[in-house]
Amino acid sequence: MTKSHHPETIALHAGYRADPSTGSVAVPIYQTTAYQFESTEQASNLFNLSELGNIYSRIMHPTSDILEKRMSTIEGGAAALCVSSGQSASAFSVQNIAESGDNIVCSTDIYGGTWNLFNNTLRQQGIEVRFVDPIDPNNFLKATDEKTRAYYAETLPNPKLRVFPISEVSSIGRKLGIPLIIDNTAAPLLCRPFDHGAAIVIYSLTKYIGGHGTSVGGMIIDGGNFDWGDHIDRQPLLNRPDQSYHGAIWSEAAKPLGPIAYILKARVTLLRDLGSTISPFNAFQIIQGLETLALRMNQHSKNAQEVANFLSKNSKVSSVIYPSLQKGTDLERAEKYLNGGYSGLLGFELTGGKNAGQKFIDSLELLYHVANIGDARSLAIHPASTTHSQLDGAEQLAAGVTPGYVRLSIGIEHIDDIIADLTNALSKL
Ligand code: PLP
Questions:
Q1: What's the whole-number average pLDDT of the chain?
Q2: What is the tens place of the pLDDT at every residue in 275-298?
Q3: Nearest to 93, CA basis, from 191, 167, 181, 204
Q4: pLDDT at residue 41 above 70?
Q5: From 402's CA, which of 22, 46, 138, 386 has a CA 20 to 30 Å away?
Q6: In a domain, 247, yes or no
Q7: Which domain holds residue 243?
Q8: What is the 8-class DSSP label of residue 270?
Q9: Ligand 1, atom 14: closest residue by C-alpha
Q10: Residues with Cβ within 6 A of ligand 1?
Q11: How far is the CA of 241 from the centre of ligand 1 (A)?
C-alpha cells in the first residue's frame, strides 16, 4: 500500500494484510503487554533503535501500529504516534519541541480544552503560549521571538468555523525554522495540511475518525517534511544530546530510519515517560471507524450543507455559520483548504437569544444534546449555557458565542429526518 492509493483504499488496507498465524482479515486486538524477543542481539537492537519493533505496550503495540500506518499514509506523512486522547496529542506535539523558557504562537480560534491546556498547564510547566488572531497571518510573525519553537492552529475551529490560513502561516514559520502544528480533527480527508506546508498534524481520533462516539484516542503525524537538523539554534530539543536516551541527538539518530526524528523522539521519550498509551481495544474500535471515514465525511458534509441552507431561510434564525456561507477572506480560505465538502459542523444564532437557545435544545427529539462532535449521530449544544458558561459575556463574544448561538454536529441520518427534528424544535420558539 502506497501514498498513491486513494484514501478510501488506504483506510482499509494499509499496514496489514492478514494475521500471519491465524489468517484473520480483521485487524486483531493484540491484547498483550510484552513481546518475545528473537534473541539477545535482537533485543539489544530494539532498545538501541537500530531496529524498530515491539518492546513493551506502553510504547507501541501492533493494533495501534496499524492505525498509525493507515493514518500517516492517508495524510501523506512519514510516520505517526497514537496516544490515549486528542488532549495528549496536543500536549505531546508541543512538549516534544518546547521546554521551560520557550514559547509557541497559537491561533486564538482553538478548542476550549486546548486553550486550557496551553494557557494553564503548559504555562505552569514554563512553556508560554502566545495567542494571536489568525485573520492576519503576519500576527504569527509579530509574536515570534528567538525562543519560539512552533506555531499551532486548528484547520476548522468551532464555533467560528473560520478556516485557518495554513500555507500562509507555515511559509512564515519555515523561513525561521518554526514548524506549523495543525489540529485537523474537524476536517479529516477534506483538508490535507501537509500539502499546504504543515509539519505536524494532530487529531482527536475520538471525533470523525472513530466516528461512532465509542472511544477516546489521539494521533500525531510527522510530515517528514521539516529538516530539524537545519535549525540547530531554533530547535534545540532535536539537536542537542538527550540525556534521557544515552545522549542521542534526534535529528542525527533518526536518519537511518527515515525523516522521523520528531515522531521517534515523541514515542521513545514522551510516551515512554508519561505513558499516555491508547488501549488495543480503543485502537481497534477507531480502526473500524477509519475504514468508513470517507463515506461518512461525504454524508456529514452533504447533510450539513442542506441544514445550513434550510436554517438560512428560517425567520427565527438571524445568522448561519458554515464555511461555504462565509464571505470574503473566510470564504476564500474555506474554498482553498477544504475539498469535497465543508464537514458536519455548523452554528446558528436564534433571534430569541439565550432562552430561545435553551428551549430549542430542550425541544429536540432526534438530535442528541451532548458535548461532542463528529459522531455518526447528529448532535446539538447551546454553548452559552454549557461549554462556554464559565466565560463572562465579553469573553463569550470574543470566542464567537452569542447568547442565542447553537452548535450542531450533523450526522449521517437521512436528511429529511434531521430537518424534521429541527423544524419541530424551531416551531416551539
Ligand atoms: N482537538 C479538537 C479540535 C477537539 O474538538 C477536541 C475535543 O473535543 C480535542 C482536540 C481533544 O480531544 P479528546 O477529547 O480526544 O481528548
A1: 96
A2: 999 999 999 999 999 999 999 999
A3: 181
A4: yes
A5: 138
A6: yes
A7: 7-288
A8: I
A9: 86
A10: 85-87, 90, 111, 113-114, 154, 183, 185-186, 204, 206, 216, 218, 373
A11: 33
